[in-house]
Specification:
Helices cover 33% and strands 23% of the residues. With 324 residues, it is α/β, with parallel strands linked by helices. The longest helix is centred in the middle third of the chain and has 18 residues.
Length: 324
């Protein structure tokens, strides 16, 4: 694998104001993404996992500038994204596949028009060239060219997601953010879509940020995995290493929740139960955000926030007791 970083994220923050005073000044903020830094190598898939509300989707949308960052910077192919012109160029090279295949497609447009829209916005191809490109994209995602004249409501969820993938590929991007791209689909269809994504990656040399809840599927498709909790990364490492030897208590709890397809083993194994509920992201706990649910919490955890430190081989963990 090529080690060149296609995407670099430095101290990225995205805060949402949830309360203002009489004069309109912010008095309370939700820190959806809080000082996150990482990179993705060209040609790899970085899986991003965590509980609902941890900031995964917000991170993806902030990277692609659907949300304006509160602070920090995003570098794509070594170039910082700052101006509107940068964002326009970014759209050609970076695309997103959305979670809901029913809501992400315009019901009033035909499939052909949906796929053609990015081409028209950027003015890349003539009408005849665009028609040829649409046919090519539909075949690439396993659909028939005659589907171009139909409307989204005529297709199943899996077929709609394939249309969404075709639209994302229209501009020949090199990086795609898959934002829960399989969570709304049936299990059997999920496997088909994941296999399609892997096939397209090999054929087109794509790089993915794969956001998902399904840890088993993330293990199947990802080269590396990042674990997120309350807007921060708590662990990141090579897939085999992270799944085989997790170091953060939160990661251990997530992996323990993966069902084992053997009734006897599943029934006999001892699970890891997290104490309490997810804290309020507007007023997170001091120090380590996870300490209120951690079985290993010590006084130091409340006093000092752990930093994401390389424990060897690129396996990084944000825990004062990362070897527990």
């Amino acid at each position: 694998m090529v080690e060149t970083a296609i995407l670099e994220v430095h101290n990225l923050k995205k805060y949402f104001t949830v309360q203002r005073d009489f004069f309109g000044r912010p008095t309370a903020c939700l820190k959806a993404v809080d000082d996150v830094s990482f990179s993705i190598r060209k040609g790899e898939t970085l899986g991003l996992v965590g509980e609902s509300g941890c900031g995964k989707s917000t991170l993806g949308r902030t990277i692609i500038h659907l949300y304006k960052p509160t602070a920090g910077e995003v570098l794509f192919n070594g170039k910082v994204i700052k101006s509107q012109k940068d964002e326009t160029e970014l759209r050609r090279s970076m695309q997103m596949i959305f979670q809901d295949p029913y809501a992400s497609l315009n019901p009033r447009m035909t499939v052909g028009d949906i796929i053609r829209e990015p081409l028209d916005i950027h003015g890349l191809l003539s009408k005849d060239q665009g028609r040829k490109r649409i046919m090519e994209l539909l075949q690439m995602v396993g659909m028939n060219p005659e589907h171009a004249s139909r409307f989204p409501h005529e297709f199943s969820g899996g077929q709609r997601q394939r249309i969404g993938i075709a639209r994302a590929l229209a501009l020949n991007p090199s990086f795609i953010i898959c934002d829960e791209a399989i969570s709304a689909l049936d299990v059997s269809i999920q496997a088909q879509v994941v296999n399609l994504l892997k096939s397209l990656q090999e054929k087109l040399g794509l790089t993915y940020l794969f956001i998902a809840h399904d840890l088993a599927m993330v293990k199947h498709i990802s080269n590396r995995v990042a674990v997120m909790y309350l807007g921060k990364f708590v662990e990141i490492g090579e897939t085999k290493e992270l799944y085989g030897k997790p170091r953060h208590p939160y990661t251990k709890a997530l992996l323990a929740s993966i069902p084992i397809p053997d009734p006897q083993v599943e029934f006999s194994r001892e699970g890891i139960h997290l104490a309490g509920d997810v804290p309020n992201p507007i007023t997170p706990p001091s120090g380590c955000h996870f300490r209120t649910r951690c079985n290993y919490a010590m006084p130091l955890c409340a006093q000092e926030e752990p930093k994401l430190i390389d424990g060897g081989g690129g396996h990084m963990v944000a825990c004062h007791y990362g070897e527990l």
